[in-house]
Amino acid sequence: MIDDVSGMTLVSTSSKALKDAKGTKIEVATAVGKALAEKATKAGIESVAFDRNGYLYHGRVKALADGARAGGLKF
Prior knowledge:
This protein is 39% helix and 5% strand. The radius of gyration is 12 Å and the shape is globular. The chain contains 2 helices and 2 strands; from the N terminus they run ββαα. With 75 residues, the chain is mainly α. The two termini are 13 Å apart. Strand 1 (2-3) and strand 2 form a beta hairpin. It has a two-stranded antiparallel sheet. The longest helix has 18 residues, at 25-42.
């Protein structure tokens, strides 16, 4: 997650940071979304804008967003 005004990274994570993330690519993307939401909540971030950067909203992109929503983030 980036603050567009200051250009600083606020929170980040990846599948490599989650050592226990196993399963299909969709399941791992969901786990990354949940972990990102957990970190964001700890940092005081409740709502975000989701920029999919031109990627279609399906597959891993959708799974990441759904995982973040399940973790408590509001889009």
